[in-house]
Structure formats: structure tokens, C-alpha cells
Amino acid sequence: MLLHLYLVRHGQTMFNRYNRLQGWSNSPLTDSGIADAYKAAEKLSDIDFAAAYCSDTTRALETAETILDVNESSGHSRPNLVSDMHFREQCYGYFEGQDMSMAWWAAGAPHGVHSYNEIVEKFGLPATRDMLKEADPFHDAESDVEYWTRVEGGFSLIAANKSLQNGDNVLQISHGNTLLSLMHRFARGAYDLSERPRNGSITRLDFDTTKPLDNAISVQGYNE
């Protein structure tokens, strides 16, 4: 079964505005963030969605409901919204809510690098998670293995939805670092990943539920 996934980064939040790490923690959408959600909703207003998924964070739920409200008002049937922790952003543990530059310096400095981009350039994206977990005094931040085990569970939830049919469109509200991680894993160098995806941007994936995940995802568009 081939599904067309529309991944929308949630609208801007207060933590986004203040450049703070925001994984499993919550902060409200700003006025700009509400506008982000409506802009995405307008772009998707002509799409029939057979299912909708988001994390159990306020920013994802509010973005999802806005998109579904506009979609329904445009004449489409409203799918049931599934909110689940498998769709959360990476967990940053002790560094939740901290300034992003300071957090990535703490993670990278013991290894001779001092920013997120420097860690990625020298050691690869998986190292950003493992180094942050190492630097976390409580070790609550997710390791790369822990992160992907959870995220892959989200794809399994979608694939297990017996109401979906071949060719269906699925809405999924996602998060900045998760979108970057998906692109690093599945886009195979086709896009410039030096900048994070915009709040309210749309990333399109085709998901073949019959294949192992590494061969199941085809990127159709990024940060649109």
C-alpha cells in the first residue's frame, strides 16, 4: 500500500522565537505561529485526508486542528485525529528549554566542536543525539537508537491503520529536528539541509507500507 504523507512543521512557538530547545516540553503558539498554521492549511485546503496524526504536544495539536478546520470548511470529510507520543520531537532531557547554542556547545565541546552544524559536519547527525545524551547529567535525552525506535513506531502505527487504502493522503504534524532527521536518512543528499525547515512548511513523503522502512520512504518535496 502506497500512502502520500503530508508532514507539516507546527507553527512558531515562544521557545522557537527565543531559540530554545523544545522537544517533549510545551510552549504556546505565537501570533506568528497561528498564522503559520493557517498558511499551511490554505496550501492543503484541496487535499482529501484519509487520516491525521500528530504528537501529544500542544503546538502539534493546535496546528493539526487548524489545518483540519480549514480542510473541513473547504468541503472535505474530517478524519479522526490521532495524537500519540511516537510523533513527538526528539527528547532533549536536561537541556529542554535551554538556549540552543549553549546546549549544543555543551554537547559538542568535549569532542572539539561547538555547534549543532559542526557536530553534524564532523561526526554525522546521529552523533548530535548521542553527544547530548552523554552531556545530560541525568542522561534523559534520547540517544540515536532510542529516538529512531520511537519514531519508527509512528510509521508502524500509520501502516497498521486498517481504514487506509492504496493512494490515500495522510496528514502528519511534525517537528523541526525530526523533519531534518528524516531528510538526512531518506533524501539521500537531494536537498540543502543547512537550515531547519520553516514553521508551517510542508514536506511530502511517499510511504510504501509493504517494504522495510529504509526502502519504504521516498521524498517528494521538502520545506515547501
Short description:
This protein has 224 residues and is of the alpha/beta class. The protein folds into two domains: 170 residues, Phosphoglycerate mutase-like (Rossmann fold), CATH 3.40.50; 47 residues, no CATH class.
Structure explained in plain terms:
41% of the residues lie in helices and 15% in strands. The chain has 224 residues and is α/β, with parallel strands linked by helices. The longest helix has 16 residues, at 58-73. The protein is built from 9 helices and 6 strands, in the order βααβαβααααβαβαβ. β2, α3 (58-73) and β3 form a beta-alpha-beta unit. A 6-stranded mixed sheet has the order 3-2-4-1-5-6. α4 (100-108) packs across α6 and α5 packs across α6. The radius of gyration is 17 Å and the shape is globular. The chain has helices at 14-17, 31-43, 58-73, 100-108, 116-123, 125-135, 144-159, 176-186, 213-216, and strands at residues 2-9, 51-54, 81-83, 169-174, 202-208, 217-221. It folds into 2 domains: 2-91 and 142-221, Phosphoglycerate mutase-like (Rossmann fold); 95-141, no CATH class.
- Mean pLDDT metric: 97
* Overall radius of gyration: 17 Å
The strands making up the biggest β-sheet line up spatially as: 3-2-4-1-5-6
Class from secondary-structure proportions: alpha/beta
Indicate the CATH architecture of the largest domain. 3-Layer(aba) Sandwich
CATH structural fold name of the largest domain? Rossmann fold
Shape: globular
List the secondary-structure elements in sequence, H or E: EHHEHEHHHHEHEHE
